[in-house]
Fold each of these.
Amino acid sequence: MKSLSFLAVGLFSGALAATVSQDATCGGTNKYTCLGSQFGNCCSSAGWCGSTTAYCGTGCQSGFGNCGSNNGPSSTVASSTKAPSSTKASSATPAPSASGSATQCLSDKKVPYKVSADAAYAQLAEPYNLRLPYKPAVIVLPTTNQHVQDAVVCGGKAGLKIQAKSGGHSYASFSSGGKDGSMVIDLEPFQTVALDKTSGVVQVGGGVRLGNLADGIYTQGKRALSHGTCPGVGVGGHATHGGYSHTSRSWGLAMDAITAADVVLANGTLVKASSSQNSEIYWGIRGAAESLGVITTFYMQTRAAPESVTYFAIPWTGIFNSKATFTNSFLRLQEIARNSSIIDDRISFGVYVDNYGTFSLSGAFFGSVSEFNSKIKGEFLRNMPTSGEVTVKPYSWYDYLILVAGKDSIKEPLTGYSEHDTFFAKSLTVPEKDGLSSAALDAFYTYSQTASSKSVEFYSIINLYGGPGSTINKKDTNFAAYADRDSLWVFQNYGQGANTVSFMNGLQDAVIKAQPQTQFGAYLNYVDPSYDAATAHKLYYGDALYARLLALKKAVDPKNVFWNPQSIGA
Ligand SMILES: Cc1cc2nc3c(=O)[nH]c(=O)nc-3n(C[C@H](O)[C@H](O)[C@H](O)COP(=O)(O)OP(=O)(O)OC[C@H]3O[C@@H](n4cnc5c(N)ncnc54)[C@H](O)[C@@H]3O)c2cc1C
């Protein structure tokens, strides 16, 4: 049935002038074509635009783009001479001579790099999110600051757009350029983790993954930082765009621990940025590093790792049985989240829901198991549906990191990282003063029930950022170029399947429309490629913060060298 309807859609699209895909989806209900799209000219069997054999080969939908090859004879990642894709003027893919002159310049300056003809290119070019596999014109692999400086000058002179890559986990593959034909400065060789035991400040190479960072500071001096749970995520993207985990209500975001950074600017100079040196750059890189330069080294203030963390998890059954049960249950949790006799800065938690009817809560408490059990646990169970087995367990700091990583170890390989996913995700920040209304929760519930009919698998994690004592919300936009300092909740809405983009957009729209009095925002670490630049700037930064960032951008990168589709000035 499905293939018949695809065939019918394919025939139609051949006859009508199809809309070029703006969100990487093709075929399906929207009937977008990939021909001329910035994502690649082939439409895969799953309904995504791309240019590799996964898109142009078996199952490729010829009604919505090319099949067999993306553009010309080559259908593999290996082509770096692809004709320009139809992006807007400021992001137009440069002519092949631009990448040629960049590589000549890199060779002259003895800067290591790879291009598509090199065997290592395909693995290096592969982003975490395989839905958006852009093809950089050149991937630079610097081993010194001077290499980064030279590469930035070479790329800028050649007219290439440049993005740094740390862990490569950008939801929108911005560290691959966010379009084909960019220069990627891959910081994989920058793997230093050096703890100064006297000050507690750790020097962190721009390519270090969070698991190796956590392991390094713990092993070197029993120290800890607040950061996300996935050990493969890189410090470069994560810490410059927020960085949340269940330590954040106590210790703040990963960003908040950055005391200084070594930054290569668009003119090739290397500067130290801190509260006392280049303070405006220091302000700006904590929120918009990708638009301002390449951070080769971070300096971060660690703290003593706690002896013990109390982990808790509560699954409930039957919450999705009715809209009223779902909405009332979440409203009860929201009531707890705002109650200072239950919640202080020592506790963080998130609610997980998915299209299988799961509704559970998990988090961390920097207090004892007995205090949690006597003061908090009962509140989570009171006036809620029946729960499944409740877990409340103490962990050593290191074992806690392993637990929340969901792996056997937090250590990650220094080269050849190979974990990937294919997905579309969005976020929604919910202002502290408003919280979520029952109408918004009703709308979330009703829309979520349509997932199976649309062949989408999704989950949402709704993390508590605000509430009594939250360290995250004690700072404001004077501290860093980061606007999300007054959220009660932050949603991550993550989906997979052919109709994911429209489904996830619809889910979020349903919530927003049901609560029109609220100005929702979006979280910078869950970059959403479905937004145009202006919308992204508004949702991530707001007007005042964006204006200050734009002024800084014009001062330090007047030619807009550091670019992705949503960067400052895009
Ligand atoms: C599996 C998974 C789990 C996650 N878990 C969490 C979580 O628990 N909490 C949370 O807050 N977020 C989480 N995230 C989101 C994550 O924090 C962001 O995707 C983050 O931006 C990825 O950082 P990266 O260095 O790996 O990404 P990259 O793709 O390398 O970089 C992302 C952006 O930052 C820029 N950038 C990277 N390094 C530098 C640098 N040195 N100098 C200048 N610009 C740079 C890049 O150019 C790009 O624009 C998760 C993501 C994934 C995929």
Note: The radius of gyration is 24 Å.
Amino acid sequence: MTANHDGGVQLGLSRSIRASLPGVEGCTVIDDRPVDSALYSTHRDFFDATQPETPCLLLDLDIVAARYRELRAGLPGAAVYYAVKANADPDLLRHLVELGCGFDVASVGEIDACLAAGADPASISFGNTVKKESAIRYAHERGIRLYSVDSVAELEKVARAAPGAEVCCRFIVRTTGAQWPISRKFGCTEEDAVALLRDAVSLGLRPRGTTFHVGSQQREPESWAIGVATAARVAAKLAAEGIELDLLNLGGGLPVRYEATVPSLETYLTAIERAVAESFATRPALIVEPGRYLPGDAGMIRSEVVLVTEREHGLRWVYLDVGRYNGLVETDDEAIAFPVVAVRADGRFADQAAPAVLAGPTCDSTDVLYERTPVSLPVDLRPGDHVDILATGAYTTPYASVGFNGFPPLPSRCFRSTDG
Ligand SMILES: Cc1ncc(COP(=O)(O)O)c(C=O)c1O
């Protein structure tokens, strides 16, 4: 993967360069971001055929479908509720409805998007535990039955605005291994979960079960076992009081292979199945809520190089037309290391690559993608060349600002790479 492709493509991170940069402490050039050449070539073909303006997210719906089917097959009987926050593209939502997928929504806007795509309200979970009462009423009027809560005040809102609704209580799990942690902001204690679900009965609601989130881009498959064991204890305590829970929502967290070391889906699902079998005498109905996993590696952002220049300490800086504020928020603190590929449409790159700091186009000094861990790019990269940012189907377009510095939100184009 180090040689130039025929079409002038060079896989920017493929060579084993590990260098420290003068004046930048602890700085190494990363060389371990995997490029799936089969996936990549479908994106390239679509770009070549359609030539959309850059920057642009290209999303292969057939890859999303493949991920959905893998998940269904690997966790038999579990319902898949796609977490819409990851990417709410209308074509993507319609495609998921056709596949039979359910949805986890966070807001009225996401409810509308799912209903417009043809989703059955019975297959929608209002999973955000911080909702306006008016939003709960809106959801209830449209037939949404399942609501997550993690506080008494939220439970009371649901009881008032969605009388008789089904509730799931979200408890907190303390995990390591998440590249984008979701700790602290959501979730109650195990004891509070028992109390809340007990209170649900007296408020005329139907306690269905519990839910948790192990953190996004979770690299430790055993993390789910912590939540599953807690859920089983909550269910057992309530069962002893005559309150039967029949649902376990395993949340999101399944990772995309931004790094070669991420375990396989099978490893995760095996760990989850084992945890459920060990913790529950009777298997509850399962929901899994992947956000990142479904569209993540189905997406690629094609960007254009705007400027290449040398700055302090002789560092090469490469500025793209996409950055932190038009889609790449998850490069914050360099949390997510997207694979990148340099592309020259009308020629070949030099054989050598060298480290570069990668930055976005806005005037904000925080609009820097990778500086602590510069990326390896061809030494003769220049304005007009392209840089493809891979595995960017999740948490990119929805995060783009409406027009910071006058740069428009990141557009997206869905396509099908196969006939199926
Ligand atoms: C309630 C809930 N479910 C699912 C998800 C999706 O998580 P992930 O993208 O890690 O799969 C999130 C993400 O924030 C969430 O808050």
Note: The chain is about 25% helix and 25% strand.
